[in-house]
Amino acid sequence: MSTAPQTPARRQDAVGHLPHTLCLAALNQLVEPNDVTAAALLELMTPAELLALIRREDHVPLDLGLKLAEATGRQPAPNSAQDLRVALTRWRKRLPYANEHAALQAMQRLGGGLLTSQDPGWPAQLDDLGLGRPLCLWWRAADPGNLGGDRERTVSIVGSRDASDYGNQVTFELARALGLQGFTIVSGGAYGIDASAHRAALSHDGWEFPNPPTATILAGGADRLYPAGNHNLLEQVITRGALYSEVPPGTTPTRFRFLNRNRLIAAFSRLTIITEARHRSGALNSASHAVELGRDVAAVPGSVFSPNSAGTHRLIRSGAAELISSPAEAAELLGLGPGAPAGVAASEPDDPRQRPVDGLPAEVGMLYDVLSFTRPMSPDEISARSGVTILQTLRGLSTLQRRGLAVRNDAGWKLART
Asked: What distance in Å separates the CA atoms of residue 371 and residue 366, rounded to the nearest whole number?
């Protein structure tokens, strides 16, 4: 397949013969995400046919407006054709600026590509969005085999950008503990809670599960690692996990694109956890989408005096979210422990994912979750990462050492290989 840019006229003549991926790459540059009109048209025609319709200036099939109304579940109206004409005009304005070949080449240079619903790695759970599902996904990953993922093994964790120390500690503990159970942690790559969730997921050494440890869904183009302050973190996500965007390379993240992106975070996972959120936090938008999709939602309570927990308290009070205060309670919602719903298999006692610290005090388990097999840490760092007081940390480390689960050397403490 030639990757040389074509003139608009040549593209129009050849559109009926363009491969499926190339057609979707072109449509993706003309249509904003979550455009119900475009999604409904794709229920009535192929991507190549819709692309050809957009490129035929001032052409609107007379009967297509009525079919469109039926596809979107609306009653046919006298202005259905006019609504279609408005949509086509909106998309046609972008034709001079669209170049699907250049977009694909840009992603290939970054080691990424374009994922469509016909590809094996497509996250099928996104189809639950119906007419709100993405046309395609631009991706970046060191291992393309990390794409996709089973919704049953995926958890989204989101929250405030201006997270408190409490919010960061709670998030790190939850994300790391769920990661040890083999769950992919999904978030948006932003400052605060998102960053803490990704860091915790990446803190595991020797990931042994088929799914990636973490995935980021950006609101802007996958070639723009935003925010800039998280550039190194997002590079780590690409190296060990997967990064997605439903907008083409070069797209600037804007407020409405962040809100659109939140529906993907909710759809990607079976459980969405809000660890800390203000009263009007965008994270609450993700929770709302999750509720609409019938996904589980959980929220972590905080101080009644903290504005950063006003949003999570609102979710809990309204009944939209389950109150959780520990990784064990999150695991219960996922069917991995006591209290699992009927029909969902809990972990068996001989499950290799069972932690050797189960049955010990909770703070010892929190220390175990923070420790690494390869990188020694000082007691101060272990205390900060776990949220356990320094006195309890020292006692807990002694307990782990007596059990043969942790060792100490001149560089610090780390997990013992048994």
From this structure: 9
How far, in Å, CA of 176 to CA of 17, rounded?
A: 48
Percentages (nearest 5) of helix, strand, coil residues in the chain: 50, 10, 40
Bridge partners, residue 218, by sequence: 245
Q: In angstroms, what CA-CA distances link 290 with 20, 154, 384?
A: 30, 13, 32
Helix (H) or strand (E) holding 333: helix 327-333
Enumerate helices (H) and strands (E) in the chain, giving the number of each: 17, 11
CA distance 90 to 360: 61
The C-alpha angle with vertex 122 and arms to 333 and 94, in degrees rounded to 5, equals 120
Q: Read off the pTM.
A: 0.76
Rounded-to-integer distance, Cα 315 and Cα 309, Å? 10
With H, G, I as helix, E, B as strand and everything else as coil, classify residue 245. strand
As given in the structure block, the two tokens for residue 296 are: 């589980």
Question: Cis (ω within 30 of 0) for the bond into 248?
Answer: no
pLDDT tens string 255-267: 889 999 999 999 9
| pLDDT tens per residue, range 130-159 | 999 999 999 999 888 777 667 789 999 999
Q: How far apart are the first and last CA of the chain?
A: 53
Q: In what order do the strands lie in the sheet with 137-140?
A: 112-115, 137-140, 242-245, 214-218, 184-187, 154-158, 271-274, 296-299, 322-323
Could you say which DSSP state residue 3 is in? -
8 A C-beta contact, residue 271 and residue 296? yes
Instruction: Give SS3 for 48.
Output: helix
Which residue reads 């994922």 in tokens? 115
Burial letters for 283-316: b for 16+ Cβ neighbours within 10 Å, e otherwise? bbbbbbbbbebebbbbbbbbeeebebbbbbbbbb
d(CA 44, CA 401): 65
